[in-house]
Specification:
Order of helices and strands: EHEHEHHEHHHHE
Number of helices: 8
Number of strands: 5
Helix content: 25-40%
Largest sheet: 5 strands, parallel
Shape: globular
Strand order of the largest sheet: 2-3-1-4-5
Distance between the termini: 32 Å
Radius of gyration: 16 Å
Structural class: alpha/beta
Length: 164
């Protein structure tokens, strides 16, 4: 079973799910389902063979990818670029970004729809409450900081940055 030749990441609520859905329809691309494997951050300890098994359905497609938005902006995952590079230095990286204010509003409404916050919660309260998390609403919008971590290991020619 192959390992990825490209990875889609970016800011949550920026369109990574839509991009994953569109790209996986191409006949020469294999992307596993479910979308967010999270190998390079939370599942790294399970080993490369565990990760490899996620690509079990590969049937000779030239491009193999996965999509996990948190790889880019979770502060607890500062080691993600190095782990990616050690696995595959020629990896292509696709980052999808969205206006940080629009993304924060989308994040707020998504949390409301999922019942994670009450209808009385203001966006201001939501932002303040998220400050204790590693992937806060504000920190996640600091795209320059997050992309710089990847530039320490990968050439800019390996990046494709898309705007929502």
């Amino acid at each position: 079973m192959p390992l990825p030749t490209f990875i889609i990441s970016g800011a949550p609520k920026s369109g990574t799910s839509s991009l994953w859905s569109y790209v996986r329809q191409h006949p020469n691309v294999f992307m596993p389902d479910p979308k967010e494997i999270g190998f390079f951050d939370y599942n790294y300890g399970k080993g490369v063979e565990w990760y490899r098994k996620k690509f079990r359905g590969h049937d000779g497609e030239e491009a193999v990818g996965e999509a996990t938005p948190w790889y880019m902006c979770d502060d607890r995952a500062e080691w993600v670029p190095e782990r990616m590079y050690e696995m595959e230095p020629d990896l292509k990286l696709v980052f999808i970004l969205r206006d940080p204010v629009d993304r924060a509003h989308s994040n707020f409404w998504d949390n409301f729809r999922n019942g994670e916050i009450s209808f009385t919660t203001t966006i201001s309260e939501f932002i303040r409450k998220s400050e204790n998390k590693s992937h806060t609403v504000i920190k996640c919008g600091n795209y320059h900081k997050h992309l710089r971590r990847f530039e320490e290991y990968f050439d800019r020619e390996q990046f494709l940055i898309l705007l929502h």
